[in-house]
Amino acid sequence: MNDLAIRELRILVAVERAGSFTAAAEALGLTQSAVSHAVSACERKIGTVLFDRGRHGARPTAAGVRAAAHARRILRLLDALPDEARGASTQVLSGPLRIAAFRTAAVHLLPTVLSRIKAAHPGLAPEVRIVPEVGRGTAGEVQDGRADLGIATLSGSYRLPEGLVAGELFEEAYSLVHPAGHTDPRTLPLIDWTENCSSYTREWWAVQDWLPATRLDAGEDSVVLSMVAGGMGMAVMPRLALLDAPATVAVTDLGAERPTRTVGYVTTPELARTLGVRALIRELRGAAAAGVAA
């Protein structure tokens, strides 16, 4: 019988998170030997090496990364089982609700949504993590079992990661942002930031011959706004980011051909059916329909 035990899955996740058998053992209140034996049992049952052992600790192999992601998702469902069962009979929702969101969605969309969630379901405990929408972004957090739902950008060439489902919430336009009162803002350097590279506007950017070649890089959108306010350049930014714009920054519409991005949510098929995630999706859709962030 090669069934993995729940205890083994928890140890597997702890080792992947801690980076060593010793640190995982301390976190779980176990001996290092017990952790080592459990990982060996996982590897034997799965049929492949999950961790490279060495002086550096325990580094997950590609198989270990995948196994830990699946283990986290399984454990999340197991942990949610009591709350789900009670909620089905009492209609009282409870338990954690883990959300990954990029910064501007967390600042401008989630407060209203979560205040409604808490008012309707006091037993739910939302946990929000800010995750830059770069690379695998918030969807990667969901796929790896670290979040129940992610607020993500779904536009353009976006490919939904394996094993996830998504829904659109609203579309937001990009605008030209420049120092207020500047007589010719298009002569200024273009200020960009890393997260903007995943905003699916690059085809539009490529045909805009008025965009300057001189560019300044900033760490995040709030820094971009500060630099624009200081007269250091101009930027092309989405609406959510511009809700932080100070009075010293002017926003100019880019016309009918302006770039846009779609903001939505991603989750797993199994979590999409849980009571807490379903309630969260309803509130997100309600806020989007009411124009809270769009």
Chart the SSEs and their pairings.
Elements: H1 6-18, H2 21-28, H3 32-46, E1 51-54, E2 57-60, H4 62-90, E3 94-101, H5 103-108, H6 110-120, E4 123-130, H7 137-143, E5 149-153, E6 165-179, E7 190-193, H8 202-206, E8 215-218, H9 221-229, E9 235-238, H10 239-242, E10 249-253, E11 260-267, H11 275-289
Parallel strand pairs: 3-4, 3-5, 7-8
Antiparallel strand pairs: 1-2, 5-11, 6-9, 6-10, 6-11
Helix pairs in contact: 1-2, 1-3, 1-4, 2-3, 6-11
Count the beta strands. Answer: 11
Q: What can be said about the biggest beta sheet?
A: 7 strands, mixed
Q: What is the molecular shape? A: globular
Strand content: 15-25%
Mean pLDDT: 90
Number of domains: 3
Which structural category do the helix and sheet elements fall into? Answer: alpha/beta
User: How far apart, in Å, are the first and last alpha carbons?
Assistant: 54 Å
Unreliable residue runs: none
Kindly report the oligomeric state of this protein: single chain
Number of helices: 11
Based on the coordinates given, report the CATH architecture of the largest domain: 3-Layer(aba) Sandwich
For this structure, the CATH topology of the largest domain is D-Maltodextrin-Binding Protein, domain 2
Which H/E pattern describes the elements? HHHEEHEHHEHEEEHEHEHEEH
Name the CATH homologous superfamily of the largest domain: Periplasmic binding protein-like II
Q: What level of helicity do the residues show?
A: 40-55%
Rounded to an integer, what's the Rg over CA atoms?
Answer: 23 Å
CATH class of the largest domain: Alpha Beta
